[in-house]
Write a structure and sequence with these properties.
Distance between the termini: 22 Å
Mean pLDDT: 75
Structural class: alpha/beta
Strand order of the largest sheet: 3-4-5-2-1-6-9-8
Order of helices and strands: EEEEEHEEHEEHEHEE
Number of domains: 1
Number of helices: 4
Strand content: 15-25%
Length: about 280
């Protein structure tokens, strides 16, 4: 295991609502999270183990629990875990696996040109227009149920999307977007097939930890950029983090380089996605 012991990475796979013929919400509706404080060298032998019900569990591998990390589907438990880490003085990064910033086109554009891809890898499958749009809407109340409550319990808590060392302290919650879509889906190991949403949350947390906290990853993970030209985005954007928090997110004007993720992105004000890909 490799990683910084004072850094903990959480990702919440927002998921979408699955409904039946009568519009009822089905039990297959999911939101799952993962807590990661170190990396892992291989996915071989990785197992997902359920705790009580499906609300809490863990990923584990190796003899004597060589690697373990918590995961679950209970949002109150996620909030408690984040709170405990902040109160212990650890640096906490939390990502949502949903589109967390949206490009805003000028009104003069024709209707079919209002929604450009946010970065080249998204072209032709603009996630924020598809299932990701539902995930974004769902992320807002979930975020409201987590971030402000944690902030009230750990005053004064700052929130930021900037990874620079001077911006991130033990009383700062660093927010990022996880991107696990299209080519950036990684096959679920046999021992984890019953936990696909927890697996997506694990991948997004691992991607961010690999780039920013030195987390180990399998050799087949090759870092590359989702957005190689940070000067390329010139338009206005809407931050979903600001919708959740209320225009209180610390960020720089224009672009900063965040090197975010395996198969990663650079960072606009609201942070472009973190992603992992197997090669």
């Amino acid at each position: 295991m490799i990683g910084h012991t004072d850094i903990v990475v959480y990702t919440l796979d927002i998921g979408v609502y699955n409904t039946g013929a009568a519009g009822q919400v089905l039990a297959t509706t999911t939101a799952a999270w993962c807590r990661l404080e170190s990396g892992v060298a291989t996915f071989d032998g990785l197992q997902h183990e359920r705790g009580e019900g499906r609300d809490i569990g863990r990923f584990a591998a190796g003899a004597g629990d060589e690697f373990t990390c918590k995961c679950g589907r209970n949002i109150a438990r996620l909030r408690s875990e984040v709170l405990a880490d902040l109160q212990a003085g650890r640096k906490v990064a939390m990502g949502f696996e949903a589109p967390m910033w949206l490009p805003i086109a000028e009104v003069e554009q024709p209707n079919h040109c209002l929604f450009p891809p946010r970065f080249p890898a998204e072209r032709g499958r603009e996630w924020y227009l598809q299932s990701g749009a539902a995930a974004t809407v769902k992320a807002i109340p979930l975020g409201k149920g987590i971030i402000p409550h944690v902030a009230q319990a750990v005053p004064p808590l700052c929130t930021t999307t900037q990874v620079a060392a001077e911006s991130w302290h033990s009383n700062t919650l660093l927010l990022f977007e996880g991107y696990v879509a299209g080519d950036y889906k990684v096959d679920v190991p046999p021992g984890c097939v019953h936990a696909p949403n927890e697996w997506d949350a694990f991948l997004a947390a691992l991607a961010w930890g690999a780039r920013h906290a030195g987390f180990e990853t399998p050799d087949a993970y090759e870092p590359r950029s989702l957005y190689p030209d940070p000067a390329g985005w010139q338009g206005d954007s809407l931050s979903v983090w600001d919708v959740i928090w209320g225009h209180g997110i610390a960020r720089s004007s224009g672009w900063t380089q965040s090197n975010s993720g395996c198969a990663c992105s650079s960072c606009i004000e609201w942070a472009l996605p973190t992603a992992c890909r197997m090669f």
